[in-house]
Specification:
This protein has 138 residues and is an alpha+beta fold. 36% of the residues lie in helices and 16% in strands. The longest helix has 16 residues. The radius of gyration is 15 Å and the shape is globular.
Amino acid sequence: MGLCLYVFDRDSGGDEEPEELAECDVGHYSDFGYFRETIARHVQASGFPTLMEHSDCDGEWTLAQLPRLERELREIRERFRQLPPEEPVGAFEHTAEFRESAASLYDCFHDVNGQNLFDALLDLCRAARQHARPITFM
């Protein structure tokens, strides 16, 4: 089962399907779990509660949480750029080709489409702010 994060044009509810404005297809739930486990091994996870403590089940990051989430993602991204690459064990198999020339740990995580996961999540945050919509977990 896969984890997709979306920005919709309105709350998903009612009779009509909401329009998707932006998405980040992380891959499997276990991939997102591995991503957060790797973060916890390399940084003080308690300093990044918006990313690290949010359930990966149905839910959302609210507009109020987005500035903190963006700050957390940027800080972790910069730390990962300073660390040597690591091959994910039992995770992110669908993106192995994008890690072939990894120069840092930052280069080891990608969404299903091959975009760096940090950058994909930051792009999703920008889209959410631009449209004044939360990021929805599905």
